[in-house]
Amino acid sequence: MPRIASRLNIEAPDYDALREKAEQDVEEALGAAERPDDRVKLAAEIIQQADVEIATYADTRNDLLASLYLHDLIEGTQLSQIAGVNKNGLRRLLGTAVYGSSARKTLPAFMKDAEMNALAKALNVRHIKKSPGKQLLEASLVIEKAKARRKAATPVLRDTALELVEKHDWAVHQVAAHTGLTNKMASEHIKFARLRRHS
């Protein structure tokens, strides 16, 4: 008989709508920047802010997922919906939380309740008891909106950096200095823009 997992009394948000809104906001903000030097700088700032938010909340989200899944035995399908990831994404995040990012391992696909609790104990997975579902939702919302903003800003950064180099005679190091990127990263963005143009 298959195990009957517990569920949280939390409604998963409509991540598709939230991502779409975040992307539209970025596109409008960048579209309002008429000068390419202003536009590329704003795009870089949006990406940098998104990266900070993702880095700030990622470990918290992963630890909450592991606690809820292994200690509280919450249904994986519901956790993936609350976190805004698919089933494989959830397994990857759980593996990162439990084994560490360098291990590149995922949890076994099927475990009994006792096995899940034993694994949590053996690997010292912290049991987060203070509103873990609410905390998971809050962290996941920040991360998914930040990822959407980053996704919308990245092609604009790349295309505008290429425009500055090709049409305004900027050197790569000028783009880097203006956007806060390293020379290598600025060069990579410009290369991706060229590849995308010819694909």
Describe this structure in words.
With 199 residues, the chain is mainly alpha-helical. The protein has 8 helices and no strands. Helix content is 72%, strand content 0%. It has helices at 15-31, 36-71, 76-83, 87-99, 113-122, 132-167, 172-179, 183-198.
Could you give a short description of this structure?
Helix content is 72%, strand content 0%.
Strand content: under 5%
How many distinct helices? 8
| Overall average pLDDT | 94
What order do the helices and strands follow? HHHHHHHH
The tally of strands reads 0
- Based on CA inertia axes, which overall geometry fits? elongated
Largest sheet: none
Rg computed from alpha carbons, rounded to a whole number of angstroms: 21 Å
In the residues, how many domains can be counted? Answer: 1
Which consecutive residue ranges, at least 5 long each, have pLDDT under 50?
A: none
Percent helix range = over 70%
What class would the helix/strand composition place it in? mainly alpha
Q: How are the SSEs ordered, and which strands pair?
A:
Elements: H1 15-31, H2 36-71, H3 76-83, H4 87-99, H5 113-122, H6 132-167, H7 172-179, H8 183-198
